[in-house]
Structure prediction request, 635 residues.
Amino acid sequence: MAKKISKLYSQNTNAQQQANDVNKAKEVLVKADFIVSEKQVWQNAFVISLIVVFVLMTIMSFSYGISGDEVDMNEYGKAILKYLLSFGHDTMVFNMPKEYNRDNNIQYYGGFFDLICAVVNKISPLAEYTTRHILNAWAGFVAIFFAARISVRAFSKQAGVLCIWLMFLAPFFLGHAMNNPKDIPFAAAYIAAIYCFIVLFDHFPKPAIKHYVWAILAIGFTINIRVGGILLIPYLFVFAASVYFFKKVFQKEQPELKAWIKPILIIAIAGYLMGSLFWPFGQKDPIGNPLTALHEMSNFKVSLAQLFEGTKVPSDELPANYLVKNFIITNAYVFLIGLVLIALFILGLRKNKNAAIIYFVLFTGLFPLAYVIYTKANVYHAWRHVLFIFPSLAVMSAGGWYLFSEFLAKRNMKYGMAIAGLLMLEPAYFIVSTFPNTITYYNAFAGGVEGAYGNYEMDYYYNSIKQCTDWFRKNELPKYKSTDTILIVSNAIHIVKQYLGDIKNVQLDYVRFPQRDQKQWDYAIFHIALIPDDEIRAGTWLSAGTIYKATVRDRPLSAIIKRPSYDDVKGFNALQRNEVDSALNYFNAYMKVDPNNIEMLNVMSNIYHQLHRDDLAQKYNAQINKLMAGSESDK
Prediction:
């Protein structure tokens, strides 16, 4: 009887065990199915995000204006195309007109992106600069694409999706992506090369021919865009050392370092030589000229006054914190927090299987910035000149958020990515509400746009000029007959010409803002980048004749002024004839219609001082002081 009971118990126990095993197996299958399902969700989100961002960037590009460098680079691209098609016989590329080569250094730019634009414009049905802006936006998308791919390799699909939106919703990067022909294509090529290096080393010590080709092309195209791409060659050796170190020390592997030397040398030499393939200056001496260009561009001699912390400072005398502070105040909180998070987790990643990739990408983001600061290189326009490090830092920011999310998930708090998503609403709102002036973004560290206005550079790339010229064509031009002559002046005439130069009865001329009253004109289009900073803060640069303003958060970036009176220019003509009394009569008449004109008040003060009428001179000086003590918000 006992044996029967024991046998029955054993059978029941086995049945129970089998049932438990079945239940566990079901749990494993459900869990596995959930993981597969979650991976598929993020895979779909990754692809959809790329498609949405590509479409949005393409559409957005139509609304952006011509940038400050774009006219020069457009003509340079045409000259390169002529040089190549003539097999070197057309040498205008080495003798560009001064109006397109104001700094006498255009030959040191590879110009590959501008060559592409010149070729595409031969067949494009769209306007010349519209085509360029589409291609520029696509270059920005390429940067997003490769940064996201790196994020996936280094962290996860979730990080890849986050990287896409961190970059797209970065107002500074997005604004430049539309019309910056120098820094955005370089940033795209730079991060693409880093991705190619990562794939290359995945297949060491015996990479396939295609891995050689992609790495060589990546280096060559980057140098063909900007000579700073030479940096990628020492990066090869840095990455090799990084991979070797982490494999040997933390992953207890024995990589064949000697077997790496040959492929690295082949790629380095071939990539360097290919850097001159589409670059006329490089073709003249493929060995020496790229190094000459690198030296010249590293010691850029042109100094531009930059508005920083409320003061105009020569770009070669800017303080050491210029780049870092501008980076902090022009990026969204979600991006900056991601960088803080990766800093908290970075040491703990040294044993991660992707540690070499993560640390290398971090190096490509921080080393150039540190080097530029250390060498006191001549930079301007916020951190535009180091924009190429942004994709690498975006990878790090996305990684920081991903690691934070995983950290919370282990504690049953699955809302890390949700926090990042909520924070993205802030830059998204700014982009939508200020479009297409997205480049003007400043966060609360600078007091927002309102606090930064008059203290930091705004719209330094002249994007808002298009808004003025579009308004003029629609609202003012129809008021005139085709036989009427309209004289328009501007302090950004090289851009205005691209928009209004085709109108036969419109004459265009350049004028410096302080000398506007001395020159004949009917309309003036003035841009804030070339206005004295004290007048920007006081708001006195907008005269009584202002008929249109392109603004961001009610702060004017550029404006159209219809001349309120011609008495000012008549007065200066009288002064040239030494008719002082007549000049004063004209000036006094003019001041009745434009009483806040600082330049005219100064002129009248000086005249009365020379006439020993210091009582009147003091009167005008007091009026100047009162105006300059005010602010635009008070007016």
